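Running this now, will post back.
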Amino acid sequence: MTKLLIVDGNSLANRAFYALPFLTNSKVEPSGAVYGFANLLSKMIVDYRPDGIVVAFDHARKTFRNDIYKDYKANRKATPPELLSQFPIIKKMLQTMNIKVIEKEGIEADDIIGTIAKNANCEKIILSGDRDLLQLISPDTEVWLTMKGVTEIAKVKEDNLKEIYGVEKPEQVIDLKSLMGDKSDNIPGVKGIGEKTAHNLIEKYGNLQEIYEHIDDITGKTKTMLEGEKTLAYISKDLATIKTDCEIDFNLNESEYDFPFTQKTYEFFDNWNFGSLTKRQDLFENNFSELVDENSQRIKIENLSDINKIKEEIDGQFAYSISNMEFAPCKEKVYFLPTEIDMFSNNIALEDVVQELKDVFENTSIQKLTESAKDDMHFLDKQNIKLNNFYDLTLAGYVLYTGVTNKISKMPTNLYFSKKIQLDKNLEEMGTKDIFYRCELPLVEVLFDMEKEGFKLDKNELDKIDVEFTKELETTVNEIYDLAGEEFNINSPKIVAHILFEKLGLKAYNNKKMSTSVDILNEISWQHPIVDKIIKYRKYQKYKTTYIEVYKKICQTQGDVIHTSFNQTLTNTGRLSSSEPNLQNIPTRSEEGRLLRKIFISKFEDGMLISADYNQIELRLLADMSGEEKYIEIYKNGGDIHALTASQIFNVPVDDVTPHQRRDAKAVNFGIIYGISQFGLSQTLGVPVKIANEYIESYFNKYPKIKQYNEDCVQYAHKNGYVKTKYGRIRHIPEINSSNHTLRMFAERVAKNMPLQGTASDIIKFAMIEVYKKMIESGLKSKLILQIHDELIVDVYPSEMASVEKILKETMENIVKLRVPLIINIGKGKNLYECKD
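Update: finished.
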């Protein structure tokens, strides 16, 4: 053996844990330290190919050094439980790699490393972030220090030790620490001697022994400090000296390891959702497909007659990937089209293949396994093919892993069969099978149809609003220039800050960075009329760039119907999002913004739009899920919840509640849902923090069951690592038990809010599925075309308004049974603007 890699396991795990974001696997187990450890170790193996590897770990805190100095390492904080739990996992990973792990009670990892480095007769590389190990450098031993994150490494050897650490000889590392001590290990050193003085002394005298032999040559405070702390200096030297003669069970031949990694390591990486590592074929023996199943075959589709072989081999399930052009009739075989067309081949097109498989895609008895069902529907629809009886692996992963970063990784199509079994098992175990099969899976077809239908734009109205807004912008710009006394780039925050704070001398509280954010502008708007003009300019500029210009471009390139994409797997609450373009962010707050809603009209000649919006659904759910009687009663009687809360908080009869009190109570009601802090409420209401705190305390005093409900949600999250909606949707909250206070407080707010928001999301999705179904069963031409959070919008064919309104009202208000009634507000109009009051 010529090259041995000795790894400081504790150091590398700590480095990875603190350098990377907080990561978890699909079971919400902390995994960042394991992942970082695996990444760097893999890099070391691939780049430097050591002949052997050994990893040393501390066994426990107390060692012989505590007998020398009882306060050794006494100041160290306890290892965070999120990191502590990962050490056994790292050792299991190393076991799959056949890498030798050494730990021994009473002996630190440094001493294990020192003993191996001293006695192993070969070239050695010590990998660590601990500079104490520099004392082990020798002609055949280098120390490679992890410097930044887990990627940057400083290679330290005899000829560059002084450049990096400032001493000539490795043993001087010990003498240096004997003088200046080490706060991290609580090595005392000589009180008053700092790093600079210690270096000067070592450079002049060479080592601790020589320093004390020449103590009379040293003068002033330095001499006094050295003489007064001599005993501690030598104790510190003993503490800092790494032992090289420990009794450990190690033979150099035992350091051989497996590389390329075997299937055991691949399975470990896969189980811990380390997708970036499982995809690296340079790390594993053979190739990926052979690693997964030695009997699996990849078969090139040479001609369309091969499709008959695929059909013959299908037995109840069929896996495919349109994007990868792969088709798997069973877990042992994958038929594929080459991604690059071979000029000598028959140039079979993907469209030809799917046409041959049309009867398979449409067969309701064959379950199709895919990672992107909705995208597939759009592709197949263009071929006049309908996708029936499908299972979306990505969607199942979303339901299981919402709230954690690691979801379903891309994989060969033949693995879909076993992955589906695993996902179903996990869905069953987590109690999320119903939300997947009853809600998310059937919703795919609804969203596909909505995307396909699109939302028609009135191009004439769009042009008209564009002219109005452009004129308003031009006027506002000229007014700003007049007020500033010069022309300038209003789109530049830096220049705007110069005009406001330097030229005009405006002042904003605690604004050292001279921010021109909307909060700052609102704060200083009373000081000069130019501020309101800048706010107005930004508003109109946003309307122009975010909406008008986007819509006009769509009209020019795609026609007058917008086809948005509904994203089903992005949010942590289960809500849908919309993109390309986003139709869920159409302005509603300002009158100018609401004008944009006039652009959206019915596709049908003489058609209408209808909007059905749940009334205060999250507050109604708060009443239902907390069991708070006062909330339940007010909703059952059709009363005003905000007036009731104002009455409770301000101790006045409901009939005497003022509009101002009701506004504040409304902010409290909705603030409670979102876990608002007293500071956040004070900012919202513009009142002192003390007053906001009094509002919150009064609220919880009057509604004790809501307070208890919030506490129960947080307690459940701490115990389980996730929270659930009323209908079983889960959101993992890995930060809930974090040692970081800020992260933990965020997680507790999520724990209170997500069950309400997520349940509201479940209900609107249940309603969408049922409304869509009933409209088809009724033979209506009207189409469900948009969902905006708690609101459904239907494009209504002439003469069908009464039927659509009945379906919406009956379905949405009765889709679930709560302790309080669900009520919808219905609006109608020739455009979306007219649908809202």
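Residues 287-292, 340-345 have pLDDT under 50 and may be disordered. More later if anyone needs it.
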